[in-house]
Structures are given as structure tokens and as C-alpha cells.
Amino acid sequence: MGWGKGASALLCLFLCLISETFGFCPVSSQSFLRQRQPVRSACFGLSVGVSPSPDEVVVERVAVSPSKVPSFDGLPSSLLSQEPLPSAATILRGDKDALDEAWALTDKFYLDRSFNGKDWSAVREKYRGLVNRYKPKNIGPLVGDMMNELGDPFSRWIDAQMYSDLQKFDLLGIGSPLSKGPDQKVRFIAPPVVGSPGEKAGVKSGDIVLEIAGSPVEGKNGFDILALVEKLPDPTYSIKVQPSDGRPQFEFVS
Fold it and tell me: C-alpha 98: how far from its chain's center?
């Protein structure tokens, strides 16, 4: 899949509980949640996943100082929560505890303190009342439904398999992560890693991805792009780029 396949991607895309609440997630702003069954990453906030096991959920978070986060498309680093992330937490026994942990993380770190006009405490009680109707392995989607109450397209739940898939590489495998902005354009949101295909091709942070293997990507989120790339028969493919600094469009091979 190119340069980045097999490397642990520093994901700052989409899957953001509090994450991409404001549209873009620079790599340096990342926070990560991991469980024994992988969950999701977070930028500008958090993401949540739930272990299929009802016995134990382990959540670990690693954060980079907000002072190191650059502005992007008018989003100042001050938008980041200044709350320190808690240390690793272990929740023993019970699906309701797992649901409460997801709720509590959102309650503490979600940037929009109005919760998009929702009574977040009432949302918790609503879904706590539904927990006993679900088998342990299905608790994750229930958490997803709870997050959907926010009406935030950038706040979502993904299962362990999807998280594992996303961890394999930086989506395009060229050394730089992507994000879809409010204008529906897909951009590189960080400078590519030195020596990567993206860096060698002249990709810069803010450049727009127009096409992947001849397919337009405007309006696609990270999951759509992942699905597109995984279906390609050839491990190498063309990427068409519109530079953000006035340079002419160019195309390179991953």
C-alpha cells in the first residue's frame, strides 16, 4: 500500500468523539484511546470504543501539548481543551460501566459545552436504561447510538476491526494524514514525513487531494478513502494534488 503500510498511523482523522468536532485534526494535536480490543483515536477531543469483553475495558490516552498545535483554516489552537487527559483507566465488570466511561469522557472533553443543544445527562440516563437489552458484544453500537445524539458528523464510534484497519497505514501510505474540511475538500493536514513519497513529490500541508487512482475524492471521509484504496488491485496508485500555494496541479505514484 505504499510507504506507510505496516506502520502505525498517527491518525487524526474523522473518528473523533470530541475529535474532529471542529473539522480538522493536525497530527500534533492527537490524543489516542486504546483498549485491549482497539478503539478509536481522537483529535481536538476524543473517540470511543468498547471492548467486546464485559469483564474489563482498559483505556489509555496519550496527548500532545495544545501549545504545539498549529492553526489550520482559521482554527486556533485555543479551541483545544486545556483539560489534562486522565491517566489510563480500568473499568471492571459491566457494560453499563463501559457506557458511562464513554459518556464521562465526552462530558469532560467535548469542546462544545452546550453539547449541540442536547441535555447530555439525560442522554446518559436514556442509554443506561437500554444497556440490559444488549449482549456484551453489541454494547459498542449502543455507545455509537449515544454519540449520534450529538448530531456531530465528526463524533462517532468504530469497532475494533475498523480501528485495526486504520492503524495499518496513513490511509494513502505516503507519509501524511488527510482530513475532509467543511468545504468537502480532502486535504493533507500535516507536512509529510521526510523521505516519504509525499515529501519527495512536493506535497505540503494544506494541499488538496483531487483524485486517487482516477477517482475524485471530494466529499469523501477517511472511511470512504480507506475503502477505495483497499479495493484497488495494484498496491501502487496515482494521487492527483492541487497545491494550496498556487503551484500547478501535479500527480505522483504512491
Answer: 20
